[in-house]
Design brief:
Layout lengths: L3 H14 L2 E10 L15 H19 L20 E6 L2 H14 L6 E3 L5 E3 L11 E3 L21 H9 L4 H9 L1 H6 L1 H4 L13 H14 L11 H19 L9 H19 L6 E6 L1 H10 L18 E8 L14 E8 L9 E2 L9 E3 H9 L6 H8 L5 H10 L6 E3 L5 E3 L9 H7 L34
Parallel strand pairs: 1-6, 2-5, 2-6
Antiparallel strand pairs: 1-7, 3-4, 7-8, 8-9, 8-10, 11-12
Helix pairs in contact: 2-3, 8-9, 9-11, 10-11, 10-15
Length: 475
């Protein structure tokens, strides 16, 4: 007779087989690109391969007929564009990354059609499937955000900009700036065509790392390349990691993580839409910058799981939020919110090479959380409605001038409680220059030369109401 433990292990495949994936939200970084030190920044062939392979991995996981975690009702071979929502900023690198990813998700399907007059027409490019990528417009004339090293200003969130700038006055920063002076000067011969002795400091840690990192990938020869030992390259990465994480998140000043807060609202909105549409809209994909990963990691407690969540994610990294259920799912039976859970997964690099791994969120012990628990935890830091965003950011002009007028004419409250006792973010439209650029556009904080130069730009979107049967709005 089997012991209880062995009996449970023998039943695990059956238990897993009963699970149904109802939908997924994917947030994805672009693939390998040229250095930001030399505009215009473009996606490289390597980057194209990375995102394409990532798309193929997600196809094998969610889309194909024999997918390991087939999404309920999702078309397998010929895409139904109504089932997908794909967004990326008006940015060459991110837009092209999204397109490359989608080619892997839904590869070409050769189709031949015969017209009424007998003419036979074959689809071009081997049956390449055209999948729209919704472009997120920018308020700045510099739409190509990957050309800019300092993008916190893109959020349009005044208090977030101030918070990030405060890092440059902190004791931690000043000590690191002083202690690394000799290290940075030691590599000046490698980068002196781009940086001077004055700009080659920890203040520009990310820009320096980016230049060296891209060079080591693509340049067969590098001036004074013998100085770039493995230890030196590792230290450049660690300094850039420390620099960028401190600009993207601070536990005592949550507004610094505005990117993660607005991303959280987008995640809840899109997953909520999947539930309320009964998986008619099961797949949401957004492409954006690494700082949004860092901000969300900090807010959701992931650094306590691993120090790896405090560093710059690799090219083509992605995180996925799966909606799953063990309840019966059919055309006539769809599970209630009480029977739905959320699982978080992350791949540092293209998922084809570093497959998605499950991690627990919010300090929880379980990697799969009930939908109600997930939304309650996300609601603690999600920012999505216009009035709350303006209040937290300290903005009073532009869309926030309208928000102030609207708020004063109605209830001042922007949150309420559902019948289940959990707070919710009231649905609203952020406006054309606020939220989504925060989610998709924030990256590093330091301009290459001459100190800081802040440029504000962005675009907004609505946020889902967190609750069982409420549909969020999309722009």
């Amino acid at each position: 007779m089997l012991s209880p433990q062995l009996l449970l292990l023998s039943l695990l495949p059956l238990i897993h087989a009963q699970e149904t994936v109802l939908g997924v939200f994917i947030f994805h970084r672009h693939g390998d690109r040229t250095s930001k030190s030399f505009a215009p920044t473009t996606l490289t062939d390597l980057g194209y391969v990375q995102v394409h392979h990532s798309g193929s991995y997600y196809r094998d996981r969610y889309v194909s007929t024999n997918a390991s975690s087939k999404i309920y009702g999702l078309a397998s071979d010929i895409v139904k564009t109504s089932q997908l929502s794909v967004e990326a900023p008006v940015d060459t690198v991110l837009q092209n990354s999204a397109a490359g990813f989608l080619q892997g998700l839904y590869p070409p399907v050769q189709q031949v059609n015969t017209l009424a007059n007998g003419t036979v027409v074959s689809a071009p490019l081997g049956g390449y499937q055209l999948i729209p990528v919704n472009a997120v417009a920018s308020a700045s004339s510099n739409a190509n955000s990957e050309n800019s090293a300092w993008l916190q200003g893109n959020s349009g969130c005044g208090n977030a900009v101030v918070s990030s700038n405060n890092y440059f006055f902190s004791e931690e920063y000043l000590n690191k700036l002083k202690s690394t002076t000799d290290f940075y000067q030691s590599i000046l011969p490698v980068i002196n065509n781009t940086f001077t002795a004055a700009t080659n400091t920890y203040k520009n840690a990310y820009s320096i790392f980016d230049l060296v990192h891209v060079s080591t990938i693509h340049n067969a020869t590098i001036q004074s390349g013998d100085l770039l030992t493995s230890d030196t390259q590792y230290q450049l990465l660690q300094l850039a990691n420390d620099h960028e994480y401190n600009l993207a998140y601070n536990a005592s000043d949550p507004i610094r993580a505005i990117a993660g807060s607005t991303l959280a609202a987008q995640i809840v909105q899109n997953l909520n839409k999947t539930i309320t549409s009964k998986s008619a809209n099961p797949v949401s994909i957004q492409f954006g910058a690494y700082a949004s990963f860092l901000s969300f990691f900090g807010l959701s407690g992931l650094p306590s799981v691993s120090d790896n969540f405090t560093g710059i994610v690799d090219y083509a990294s992605s995180m996925a939020f799966e909606l799953v259920t063990n309840a019966t799912v059919s055309q006539t039976s769809y599970p209630s919110a009480a029977d739905i859970s959320v699982r978080f997964l992350f791949a540092n690099g293209s998922a084809s090479e570093t497959p998605l791994t499950e991690y627990p969120l919010f300090g929880q012990s379980e990697v799969t959380l009930p939908w109600t628990t997930f939304t309650e935890e996300m609601d603690k830091f999600a920012i999505g409605d216009q009035a709350t965003w303006c209040e937290r950011c300290g903005n009073t002009t532009g869309v926030c001038a309208t928000a102030d007028a609207t708020t004063s004419a109605s209830s001042p409250s922007t949150t309420s409680s559902t019948g289940g006792g959990m707070s919710r973010v009231v649905a609203g439209v952020i406006g054309a220059m606020v939220t989504l650029a925060v989610v998709l556009g924030i990256e590093a904080l330091v301009v290459l030369v001459a100190g800081l130069r802040l440029v504000r730009k962005g675009r907004g979107n609505g946020v889902a109401v967190v609750g069982e049967n409420v549909v969020g709005k999309t722009a």
